Amino acid sequence: MNTLLKLGQSLIAVSLLAAIVISLSVLGVRSTSLLEPLELTVYDWLIQSHRGSEGPDPRIVLIKVTEEDILKQGRWPITDAVLTQALERLVQFQPRAIGIDIYRDIPVDPGHTDLNGVLVEHPQIITVTKLGGGTVAGIPPPPVLAGTEQVAFNDILIDSDGIVRRGLLFQEVEDQTAYGFAIRLAMLFLAEEGIGPQPSPDDPEQLRLGPTTLRRFGPDDGGYVRADAGGYQILLDFHRGQNPPPSFSLTALLSDEVAPEAIRNKIVLFGVTAESVPDLFHTPFSSGNDTGRMIPGVVEHAHVISQLLGAAMDGRRPTATPSEAQEWLWTILWGLCGAGLGVSVRSPWRLALSAAGGLFILGVIVLGAFAQGWWIPLVPPALAWFLSGSAVTVSVLSRERKERALLMHLFSKHVSGEVAEAVWRQREQFLQDGRPRPQQLTATVFFSDFKGYTAASEKMTPEALMHWVNAYLDVMAGLVIKHGGVIDDYAGDAIKANFGVPLPRNSEEEIAQDAVNAVTCALAMEQQMHRLNMKHLQEGLATVGMRIGIHTGLVVAGSVGTSERLKYTTVGDAVNTAARLESMDRDIVQEAPGRRVCRILIDEGTKRYLGHRFVLESIGEVTVKGKEQTLMVYRVIDHAQEETAR
Fold first, then answer.
1. Are 22 and 335 in contact, with CB atoms under 8 Å apart?
2. Are the CB atoms for 232 and 218 separated by under 8 Å?
3. Cβ-Cβ contacts under 8 Å for 595 (sequence gap 6 or more)
4. What counts of helices (H) and strands (E) characterise the chain?
5. What is the pLDDT of residue 625?
6. CA dist., res. 314 & res. 355, Å (int)
7. Fold type of domain 413-645
8. Strands, E assignment, 130-204
9. Which of 244-253, 424-433, 599-608 has the lowest mean pLDDT?
């Protein structure tokens, strides 16, 4: 139980726990799809940053029906006769496949019979149907080709924000597999290269073209959350950017302005690009309001075909995504790193700079991974990093404020500013469980008390007595602090102080310096006592003397009391010895009348650290109350001559 309690109170343990809780909370928010729009925006940015350097795909050609073509024909849709004329011209140029992205479910006379003949005669021509679904109505293929392999659906998957990021290759329809427009055309082209669709050797459920497995899109891949993953979908990589394939207008084709070499052995896509025919789609290169960068549906199909050909012939691996478990570990890792930042960086402005630097590094990692074909989530780890760092920093700063308040409460009024700052800098080794750590150390304990206080107090009013006592104590306490001592306690007119606490001394030289400081302080107090007595004598106030006892030895230093009334003090035999030296009987230490206003006694324990810095008078061996062994006692007279001269 004690181990668990200590673990719970550990800053590192609490920070790690906070990081895990925050990371899991972020993952919980992610599971609600609230972060999906942000993550998809990041995906679009990654696409824009890495795609478009290869130029148009030379294996694909567009024959587009433009606005000028419609004006020239004088109608829309174009007639079956015009379409037949265009197809006959294209067939003469010997393309590998022709895809007609124009619906022909009903006749558009004249020329319907001739069109049916061309379609049936040339199996490399693929026509389109629309599967529809939901509120979208389906559109059947040309009746003459119904049920043949010359039919493919041209449905385009659109995300909730209106952007196309996925391609649909296959779809189960009434227990049969329907082929997508792009995969049909790609398979015709690849057949002449000796490449056909195969199941992946690692997973028969995955499609393989040439050396590349087209990984099937899952509902939670990348930044998606519970997306509709029906059919066989793939992530589109738009590796050729916004560059459409080479294109010719319908008028140019019919006017013999298209060279046969531009068509031979290629995939020809026949579709409409006229502005008056609404068939435009957003891609990662455009936004919901950027209609100027929308692309026609036939160009969208060209991007999918280009990706399929690149996978089969160029070995281009499609964009991969980590598993759900890997995403969790990735997010939690950044949460833990954020907690580490909060523990190590305990300044708000430094946290802001470090957090920004961490986000930059995360962005670079995600960008670099995308360049290598991996879409790694950015938003959840970024939130886990920032929130964990912020929460832990706030917690650490709150804890430090409490610790500083505690330390300042214990020491600020009783030590010098330098000592207080030193205690704060070394608080990690000084504090334990929110309060000063008990420790045994060698210190010099200092007791002082007035002589003649009782007689003087009997002649004063309470107000005058308090003013008189405070006048002495203010001066004496200031001298203790000035000489590096720590005020431990006041008891009426008495002062207890410690030299060598709260931070342990690490050498004999430091212990000796504490002893010297204590004795130097005692002599300075004697001088101040002289000055105060002269002033009080002139004011008609009582004068007093002082007894001081000093001993150097082992003490136990720590805090006693409750959290509301905490006190830092020292206990042990050394404390008792210093107290006995201060209160030693007059008949043991004889004092000539009027000789000294201040009696300063030390024992051998302190003397051995003083060297020859002070003039000492031997009192002799003395038996004191509570100690079996006698003490060799000395009275401090003054600084040694060289010290005085200096």
1. yes
2. no
3. none
4. 20, 24
5. 76
6. 41
7. Alpha-Beta Plaits (3.30.70)
8. 151-153, 166-173, 176-179, 197-199
9. 424-433
Cα 432 from chain centroid?
28
CA distances from 30 to 182, 263, 388 (A): 33, 48, 16
335: Cβ contacts below 8 Å, ≥ 6 apart: 19, 20, 22, 23, 26, 381, 384, 385, 387, 388
CA quadruple 409, 413, 414, 417: dihedral sign: positive
> What pLDDT, in 10s, does the model give residues 22-58?
999 999 999 999 999 999 999 999 998 876 667 899 9
Lowest mean pLDDT among 174-188, 536-550, 590-604: 590-604
Q: d(Cα 518, Cα 598) in Å, to the nearest integer?
A: 15
**pLDDT value of position 430:** 58
- CA 192 to chain CA mean position, Å: 53
Domains in the chain: boundaries: 2-30+322-387, 39-313, 413-645
610 in Cβ contact with 516 (< 8 Å): yes
Q: Is residue 22 a contact partner of residue 384, using CB atoms and an 8 Å limit? A: yes
Distance, in Å, from the CA atom of 116 to the CA atom of 80, rounded to the nearest integer, reads 9
274 — alpha (psi -120 to 50), left (phi > 0) or beta? beta
Higher pLDDT, 361 or 460: 361
Q: What is the largest CA-CA distance in the chain?
A: 142
Reported for 456-459, long-range contacts at CB under 8 A and 24+ positions apart, including other chains, are 456/542, 456/543, 456/544, 459/542
Q: What's the confidence (pLDDT) of residue 435?
A: 61
Beta-bridge partners for 440: 556
Calculate the CA 316 to chain-centre distance.
Answer: 34
CA dihedral 222, 223, 224, 225 (to 10 degrees): 110
- Tell me: cis bond preceding 296? Omega within 30 of 0 counts: no
Q: Is the dihedral of CA 255, 261, 267, 273 positive or negative?
A: negative
Report the pLDDT averaged over residues 143-154. Answer: 96
Identify each DSSP E strand in 427-581 by its residue range.
Answer: 431-432, 435-436, 439-451, 486-491, 494-499, 545-561, 566-571
Residue type, 155: D
Residue whose token pair is 């049969």: 176
Q: Give burial (CB, 10 Å; 0-12/13-18/19+) of 444.
A: buried
Position of tokens 């906070």? 18
User: What's the rounded Cα separation, in Å, for the pair 253 and 85?
Assistant: 10
CA-to-CA distance for 550 and 605, rounded, in angstroms? 9
Candidate ranges 4-8, 137-141, 407-411; pick with highest mean pLDDT: 137-141
Would you call 344 helix, strand, or coil by DSSP?
A: helix
Amino acid 584: pLDDT: 84
Residues near 184 by beta carbon (within 8 Å), at least 6 away in sequence? 97, 99, 126, 149, 152
279/288 Cα distance (integer angstroms): 15
3-state secondary structure of 629: coil
d(C-alpha 226, C-alpha 204), whole Å? 24
Helical H segments across 167-249, by residue range: 181-191
In 3D space, the residue among 85, 170, 185, 178 whose CA is nearest the CA of residue 129 turns out to be 178
Beta bridge partners of 163: 282
Which two tokens mark 252? Answer: 């140019």
pTM of the predicted protein model: 0.68
The end-to-end CA distance of the chain, in Å, is 60
| Tokens describing residue 569 | 């003090």
Q: Give the pLDDT confidence of 616-627 residue by residue, as tens digits.
A: 999 888 887 777
